[in-house]
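Please, structure for the following, as C-alpha cells.
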Amino acid sequence: MSSPKLSPQAQRWRVIMFTVPIIGVTSFVLYKRLILGEPRRELPTDLKSHGHEKVATIFTTGKEEGNGAAST
C-alpha cells in the first residue's frame, strides 16, 4: 500500500515526531545513570555461573541442555 507523497514540511514534522521522544528517553536514562548513579540494567542470565560450558554446548550440539527450554 503506497501512501501519498508528503510535502517537505510534513516530512520534517514526521522526523521530529519520531526522533524527539527517542532522544528524550535516551537522555533521561543517561542522566539517571551518569548523574544520579543508578546502576546499569542487566538481563537476567545464568551465564555468570557456567556460561562457557553452556555456550560450547549450544555451538557443538545446536541445542541447549538443561530445563528443556530449547528442546526440539
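Helices lie at 8-34, 47-61. The chain has two helices and no strands.
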